[in-house]
Design a protein that fits this description.
The complex is a heterodimer.
Chain A (H helix, E strand, L loop, with lengths): L16 H14 L4 E17 L2 E19 L2 E7 L4 H14 L36 H18 L3 E20 L4 E18 L5 E3 L2 E5 L8 H13 L10 E7 L1 H15 L1 H5 L20 E4 L20 E6 L2 E2 L6 H7 L7 E2 L7 E2 L3 E4 L6 H6 L3 E9 L9 E12 L2 E14 H4 L3 E4 L9 E2 L3 E9 L2
Parallel strand pairs in A: 8-15, 14-19
Antiparallel strand pairs in A: 1-2, 1-4, 2-3, 4-5, 5-6, 5-7, 8-20, 9-10, 9-14, 10-11, 12-13, 15-16, 16-17, 17-20, 18-20
Helix pairs in contact in A: 3-4
Chain B lengths: L5 H6 L3 H11 L6 E17 L2 E19 L2 E7 L4 H12 L14 E2 L17 H18 L3 E19 L3 E19 L4 E10 L12 H16 L6 E8 L6 H8 L4 H5 L20 E4 L20 E6 L2 E2 L6 H7 L7 E2 L8 E2 L3 E4 L6 H6 L3 E13 L5 E13 L2 E6 L2 E6 H4 L3 E4 L4 E2 L4 E5 L2 E9 L2 E9 L12
Parallel strand pairs in B: 4-6, 8-15, 14-22
Antiparallel strand pairs in B: 1-2, 1-5, 2-3, 5-6, 6-7, 8-23, 9-10, 9-14, 10-11, 12-13, 15-16, 16-17, 16-18, 18-23, 19-23, 20-22, 21-22
Helix pairs in contact in B: 2-3, 4-5
Amino acid sequence: MLETLVETDNPKSATDLRERAQDVVRQAMAGGATAAECVVREGDEFSTVVRLGQVETLKESGSRAIGVRVFFGQRAASTYSSDFSSAGIGRMVRSALELSKVTSEDPFGGIPEAAQLGALTGDLDLYYEDVYSLSGPERIEYARRAEKAALDYDPRIKNSEGGSFDAATGHKVLANSHGFVGEYRRSYCSVSAVPIAMTEDGGMQRDFWFSVARSLGKLEAPEKVGVIAAQRTLRRLGGRKCKTAQMPVVFDPMVSSSLLSHIFEGVNGDSVYRGASFLAGKLGEKIAGVNVNVIDDGTLVGGFGTSPFDGEGIPTRRTVVVENGVLKSYLLNTYTAKKLGMQTTGNAARGLAGTPGIGPGNYFLQPGTKTPQEIIGGIKEGLYVTEFLGHGANLVTGDYSRGASGMWISGGEFAYPVEEITVAGNLKEMFFNISEIGNDLEFRGSMAAPTVRVDGLIVGGE
Amino acid sequence: MTQTSFFFQHYGLTEQDLEKYLSAALSAGGDYADLYFEYLTSTSLMVDESMVKSASQGISAGCGVRVISGERTGYAYTDDLSPARILHAARTAALIASAPAKTQVVGFQQKPARSLYPIVVPSVDAEITAKVELLMRADASARGYDPRIKEVRASYADELREIMVAGSDGTFAEDSQPLARMNVACIAKTETNSARGSSGGGGRVALDFFFGEKTPEHFASEASRQAVLQLDAREAPAGEMEVVLGPGWPGVLLHEAIGHGLEADFNRKQTSAFAGLIGKRVASDKCTIVDNGTMPSRRGSLNVDDEGQPTQNTVLIEKGILKGYLSDKLSAKLMGIADTGNGRRESYEHIPMPRMTNTYMLAGQDAPEDIIRSVKNGVYAVNFGGGQVDITSGKFVFSASEAYLIEDGKVTAPIKGATLIGNGPDVLTRVSMVGNDLQLDEGVGTCGKDGQAVPVGVGIPTLKVDRLTVGGTAKRETGGFMQ
């Protein structure tokens, strides 16, 4: 049994990261850059997996890295390093300056205007030290309790991929040559269980459940997580194929968010300016039924997708993406906004290297009024999808085809589990065919959607 | 061990240091400990709209310390290779065990070195202008292919990974692992229609590979061909039907349908649909499938795995009978089987686990034309995106990006991309014909497992599967040939 974990004597939480970032920007400007931007990230992670009551893995570490993006007029390049020595940082800056010689003049390149920069003020409720407050044995106990609840739930739960407890904190600093410097910390913890159920004839099914929160105090009890994981696993036992036919399909919230993610990918400015999206050029047009409202909000207090500023130092905001079925806004960073002659929506996502991409804030489908039971109750014969396999959505054409498993609905109730089937349609039509939206919106990440019913999809089976 | 060791030279490490760190890792007992040092340099470039829009380079270095005690694994890592930080990581990982300290084995032994990717100048050190030239050539070639090609994005990425592994059992290994890849993605547009195409490849090769064997023009014309072809694609059928897979990358079928299910960790835990099936029939007698980490210059190849064990050519299925699993040190020890050299990890931040290398089916006797001719109504799928598998239920998918209808023994109209779904333990029992035209993919595969990505290869000859579910959108009324 573990008694204690080594004390976290972490020299990396030194408070000089702001100065480091600003110093890198100064070095780049002194080297001749016309603009520069530096990002520093550091984080700690802890994870443990308990399987069949025994600790299987225990992992604990911290790391940090620094990246710089430089502009020579409208040529850009970026470099990154995990070496924080002054020699290492000097090399990184010189490499970026050198590398920018091979890139092209891009009339739309550059960092944001000084006036656009800023950060949300006030406590966004993103960081809780309590994710690290548990002792080593207590963390293991969380994982063990989640798994045990699943194993004890039903004799058919005979095996397990384990229960787990994870915690992480991250600290991000961004500085640029307009004098912007901002930083924020976020924390995260989660508990999960992955039980395996068996039938007498040897058929096996696995499913999972988890709770995730920014604070340990908001995490659901491990026992609750284990029980739901067991229930989700048991209902899959004895799965069979269904017939090939067109039918109504209900998306469990665990998979409806993936449906919504296709709108996100479709309004991603990078796909839009290249015409690589089924939603390109559709601004102001109907792309979905009048019941469909999609919002991206990076400002929600405590949200999984919340931050005070985006990857370029633009304050995050609330953007209505789809209103009553009409496409109201793309989601943009500085570059894609300039390409489209628009304003950034504060959705820049900055990794350590490369040009910034587009990322969500808290992105969601506005809930309706019906309960999931009412939605299922309204279907004579149809499919309830609990899990998708594969990534079969073509954003250019809208063609959609994915492997699925779930429950067969008959007479408004779950009849039996189904598996080894496909669900296919076209995204251009699917959002018009959302006939029901549930009232059960719950964030388990930065994207969320309630239970959704889509009509007219083709289910491939026997 | 060699005194020219990268880490000994650059970080002043000595054999005594390694022994000291391993002793700290075993200070609370533990059966085994190892150190994984990694120094990774990488470059990436992108040409979009005929401009070099993005260029980046990076360096990351670190050390991961693992301690195994029975079935338990403790792991900690540091991105700072100073003795204090490595010792701290070692003591953190040590806490998985709870017994008196063990005496550290002294004397490292290095197995004879292999050289599957002997490269004088790693691509990461080659002139950046030459890499830019490759991308500009790809851009021009794709745009010149057809006036309907409107958007072209060409990207190039390479890396050089220096690794060193030292284990408390005396294991010592070093390797210098180059990897390069280029990719071309384009969009064809007409007034009414758009379609995409993409192609890419590479391997553990030097930059001259892209000036000789596989040129930018090769990838550009292939991506353009696919995009233009897809403009006229009709709806794919839905339901169970005969499916013929073309040679090469469609081998992703093997990776998903059986490869993951044969990774030893899942079988040790009895969570795989293949658990307990050694010696049993899991494929038709025409199927012999191997995982081979020893192919020169291949993307999935390694001189040694990330636990220091030399890779090998492992027979997974021989004439339809399941022969073995893919193992790493932990699963080999706990299951009492040989270590097949498949212990891999994404980086020093990750715990190694059994992973595939290059997984393929050996060639059979049938001529590809005869295989097509034998199908009355079905689908011929020649290019794929990715795939995924649920190893417990055995259900897997792989998504066709280029496919055609087969009608009366002839390949006819192109169809839209569709997902194919099947059941791993029995899909290969329905392989009724195997072509004589084995090909491996061009070097595009990246496999994800537990959040860890590693480069892999796949391959098959032309194959006929008698029954597989195709996830198209054509309704039954209109898709009259189904079933």
